[in-house]
Amino acid sequence: MNLFEFLSAYWWLAFPLIGALAGTGRAWQKGLERRHTRRLEVLRVKGELRAAQLAAKEQGAARRSAPAAATAPPAQAGTEPGRLVRLLAAHDDINRRWLEYELDVARIIAFPTMSDGREPLTAAFLRAKKVADGLRPESARVRLDPAALNEYRDAVHDYEVAFEIAEQDARRRRDTGFDPAERKRLETAQQLLSVAVDSAATPAERQLAYRRVRQELDGLIALSDEAIEVLESKVSQELTRGDTPAGGAVSNAESSPVWPIPARDPRPGGPPRDA
Q1: Domain-located, residue 258
Q2: Cα–Cα distance between 71 and 231 in angstroms, integer?
Q3: Quick one: residue 269, left, alpha or beta (phi over 0 = left, psi -120 to 50 = alpha)?
Q4: Tens digits of per-residue pLDDT, 31-55?
Q5: Is residue 148 in a domain?
Q6: 152: burial class by Cβ within 10 Å (0-12, 13-18, 19+)?
Q7: To bridge 114 with a disulfide, which of 85, 94, 170, 193 should be the other Cys (CB 3.0-4.6 Å)?
Q8: Which of 135-144, 160-169, 226-235 has maximum average pLDDT?
Q9: Domain presence at residue 189
């Protein structure tokens, strides 16, 4: 049977093939959209934390330059501005704890469900985070009416509770969602990670360990772009700390840059894990 006869006899196969290809394309596109959304979220939270740190420094400088403020009546601690400052600080603290799971590859390996938006408890705290972020005022100087302040307080509390529940579950489950072979790969990746950021290892050893970490995690955990940048920064810092041997000569293998390895989809035919 030649090709023309085959196509004439089995032309109907084109319809299920088109449907399958379309479904795979939609899943891939949704995965890219989720990763892009999480990337923007991480960048926004990092910006908020930096702004909060700068604001705290400015407030500290203002208090030092105005000693009279330290003698203010204690009753002011219970006013709305004081409550808002505490709520913003609590909000920032939860964001900081969340970023530790988003950016630290060692934590991502140890507690993979915290960076997987498909997990119900992880999805719940991400939804609570979105609500709290939406109600967050621009600064502590904003005057909120009592109803708005209470609504923001409840949102921050819900965010904190949802995060702690997800964190406890992640610490309980760890890597139990993977089969024995996958758990072995995660264990290997964790060991290699310690070599990649170890100043006692040679540059060639650290570079090789970094590449092996990416290979072991490929298909198991999708690292966010920010987590990869943080890891590469740590490896690069170690590569520049007194790594030049006597005579100043460095071999080509040891002086080559750290090249990232593209991550494939964590599940065949499925979108990548949220990262």
Answers
A1: yes
A2: 46
A3: left
A4: 555 555 555 555 555 555 555 555 5
A5: no
A6: buried
A7: 170
A8: 160-169
A9: yes
Position 13 scores a pLDDT of 64
Total count of domains within the chain: 1
Host domain of residue 228? 178-243+251-266
Q: Is the pTM of this model over 0.70?
A: no
d(CA 170, CA 68) in angstroms, rounded, equals 47
Output the DSSP codes for 158-196. HHHHHHHHHHHHHHHHTTTTS-HHHHHHHHHHHHHHHHH
Is the alpha carbon torsion for 89, 91, 92, 93 positive or negative? positive
Query: CA 194 to CA 190: how far, in whole Å?
Result: 7
When the pLDDT of each residue in the chain is averaged and rounded to a whole number, the result is 76
Rounded Cα–Cα distance for residues 18 and 4 (Å):
20
Which string of DSSP letters, residue by residue, matches 74-135?
A: GGGGGSHHHHHHHHHHHHHHHHHHHHHHHH-HHHHHHSGGGG-TTSHHHHHHHHHHHHHHHH
Which of 66-80, 224-238, 250-264 shows the lowest per-residue confidence on average (mean pLDDT)? 250-264
Contact 25, 32 (CB under 8 A): no
